[in-house]
Design brief:
- It is a single chain.
- This protein has 383 residues and is α+β, with helices and mostly antiparallel strands.
- It folds into two domains: 8-23 and 255-382, Aspartate Aminotransferase, domain 1 (Alpha-Beta Complex); 28-250, Aspartate Aminotransferase, domain 2, CATH 3.40.640.10.
- The chain has twelve helices and 19 strands.
- Strands 3-11-10-7-6-4-5 form a seven-stranded mixed sheet, with helices on both faces. Strands 9-8-16 form a three-stranded antiparallel sheet, with no helix packed on it.
- Strand 8 (176-177) and strand 9 (180-181) form a beta hairpin.
- Helix 1 runs antiparallel to helix 8, helix 2 runs parallel beside helix 8 (242-273) and helix 8 crosses helix 12.
- The two termini are 25 Å apart.
């Protein structure tokens, strides 16, 4: 069986395979790009940032992109630039990373949680419609794990009620719904954290077709100034560095390849695990391009061991897995103290069952074979 890159631990004269849940690919050309920026002396909010914005907007199919310091900053700025403020309600998913909802709180708005579709893990449009009140201003769908939301239905709801759409695309770079990239349906917000499909080390970006909105977002990210030292709105220090942008430009050129490798790895895992009973594998509708930021299975009662026990047993075999996410946002202690007491059955069930397996582009064929073999040997009931 083929060996993976360099992921081995030596102990007791034996080598043990270790397969990481994520592994950013940083190569010589990223290092060259960063070195060039260092030599230029222009390290923050310079020409490289502008170049990266132009390239990412073109990739996303939007007119504008605004680079910022993180995915959370992108969400916060997008809400502020759309005028979301105190008491405004934004409908979103409870089954995502907490920054999605926190960004709404940053504006003194109120997150309203709609339950997810249990097949795709994404917010269910029918549940969105049930949550709309006179205070609702926006819908923030999350394209979780790289799987696009049902944007046709979400856009119709938004049109019917005059609502803003802010897409949380932090896990879905290059994902498509009906041939159109996420981040181009409404206002898109992306993260470039190291575990994502592409990275800048840390960073984010906002995509839009609205020039006035883009201008306001640029002011907010830079202390509210349009012209240096003339501050027109309350702003923040959410700027991207040229160092990050240089990495981002290099990574963006590789993103199609990275995504293709993720999809090929996911296909291999799905084919290999299709005979294992008790595992519900990712579902990809024919009109969607799932870019597999995570390959997430559900470990049901039909599997002979619990989800948490399976996670531990795979770790013993050197396979690192992760639970995204073990507790929905509305059940988090902080949100409980805020008075959230929703019962969202699909989200809560998913939190008990989901387990993400490595799917990143650094995996070798031998890694994938070893993962399938290991799962088959973890007391799974075969179909």
């Amino acid at each position: 069986m083929a060996q993976s890159q360099e992921d081995f631990i030596k102990g007791n004269a034996e080598y043990r395979r270790v397969i990481a849940i994520a592994k950013p690919i940083i190569e010589e050309d990223e290092m060259v790009a960063v070195t060039a920026v260092l030599r230029s002396g222009v390290l923050a909010q310079g020409k490289k940032v502008a170049e990266f914005e132009e390239a990412f907007a073109e990739f996303s199919g939007t007119r504008y992109a605004v680079a910022v310091s993180s995915g959370t900053a992108a969400l916060h700025i997008a809400l502020l630039a759309h005028g979301i403020g105190e008491g405004d309600e934004v409908i979103t998913s409870p089954f995502t990373f907490i920054s999605t909802a926190n960004s709404i709180l940053f504006t003194r708005g109120k997150p309203i949680f709609a339950d997810i579709d249990e097949v795709t893990f994404n917010i269910a449009p029918d549940n969105i419609a049930e949550k709309i009140t006179p205070r609702t201003r926006a819908i923030m769908p999350v394209h979780l794990y790289g799987q696009p939301c049902n944007m046709e239905k979400i856009m119709k709801i938004a049109d019917d009620y005059g609502l803003i759409i802010i897409e949380d695309c932090c896990q879905a770079h290059g994902a498509e719904y009906n041939g159109k990239k996420v981040g181009s349906f409404g206002t898109g917000c992306f993260s470039f954290y190291p575990t994502k499909n592409m990275t800048t080390g840390e960073g984010g970006i906002i995509t839009t077709d609205n020039g006035e909105f883009a201008e306001k977002a640029r002011m907010i990210r830079n202390h509210g100034q349009k012209e240096r030292y003339f501050h027109e709105v309350l702003g923040y220090n959410y700027r991207m560095t040229d160092l990050a942008a240089a990495i981002g430009l290099t990574q963006l050129r590789k993103l199609v390849h990275f995504n293709q490798k993720r999809m090929e790895n996911a296909k291999f895992l799905t084919e290999g695990l299709s005979r294992v009973g008790g595992l519900i594998l990712p579902y990809v509708p024919s009109n969607m391009r799932h870019v597999f930021q995570q390959y997430t299975v559900r470990v049901t009662n039909g599997f002979r061991t619990s989800r948490d026990d399976l996670k531990d047993r795979l770790m013993e075999k050197g396979i690192t897995t992760q639970i995204y996410y073990p507790l929905p946002i509305h059940k988090q202690p902080f949100y409980q103290r805020l008075g959230y007491n929703d019962h969202l059955a699909n989200s809560e069930k998913a939190a008990r069952e989901v387990l993400s397996l490595p799917v990143h582009p650094s995996l070798a064929r031998g890694d994938l074979e070893y993962m399938v073999e290991s799962l088959m040997n973890c007391e799974g009931a075969f179909k």
